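To: structure subgroup
Subject: Chain for Friday's discussion

All,

I'm putting the inputs and outputs inline so they're searchable in the archive.
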Amino acid sequence: MTIEKPTISVVIPAKDEAESLPELCDWIARVMDENQFTYEVIIIDDGSRDGTWEVLTDIAGRNPSVKGIQFNRNYGKSAALHVGFKASRGGVVITMDADLQDSPDEIPGLYQMIREEKFDLVSGWKKERYDPPGKTIPTKLFNGVTRRISGIRLHDFNCGLKAYNSRVVKSIEVYGEMHRYIPLIAKWNGFTRIGEKVVQHRPRKYGYTKFGLERFVYGFLDLLSITFVTRFRKRPMHFFGTMGTFCFLFGFLITLALIANKAYHNLYLQKTVRSITDQPLFFLALVAVIVGVQLFLAGFLGEMVTTSNPTKNNEYLISEKIGL
């Protein structure tokens, strides 16, 4: 029997969201039915301890469009999205959070931007937020820095409500804590038609946030990491070699200058100057030469070592699946 391919796949990471899932799934089903979309909802239970999987099993028993994947333990949002992307079959893939702060009513608009306006990726922008200043101010700073470094003019990189052409999610790899930078990963993989849509941000109805202020520190470090890895993954010698050459030449030129200065004073001015090894600049030059050689060797080793590990996303232990 041929299984009909859904028009939309909704991928939802969930951790301890047993209270919100029934209402969220009913809401999604209502929106899909009203717009006559064929769909699937893939919910990834990311190591919940509050009965989320039992609730999901009950929902899937009543609605065959709802499917589930249960992790053996908590791996994080990036891992959940990666596994959900792999399992998705829809032509348009939409991600949202499970806490009811993202509105399923935005799905038709996001779908239209992907299908009719031909965007590769559309990111939600929660222009009006229901978060305290202690969260909104760091968020604005984080988004500003990310815009400046990435060159992508989005207001809210961390918004969980996004829509993708399925080609995007099948072509990129999300790991670690890189879910914040999927637009950046997509851009550097050639998917440059990136749009933005103002979306509704709803106050949290159940439970509590799973993220603290430390996510902004981790987010900045992840931004530096992904910028380096994406730009120099295939050519590490360009990064390490350039820095190594600069350091080596800096130290070498200082050494030549010290030698020339001593020779000039001894041979032409007939003056005795202190030994080269007694001058602080000599030790600075020596350190620069050594560091330069080490960086150059690091570049060679980087060229020889395969930097992309094809198994880094195959280590998530899945306890159980529903409908997949």
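Points worth raising on Friday:
The mean pLDDT is 83.
The chain has ten helices and eight strands.

D.
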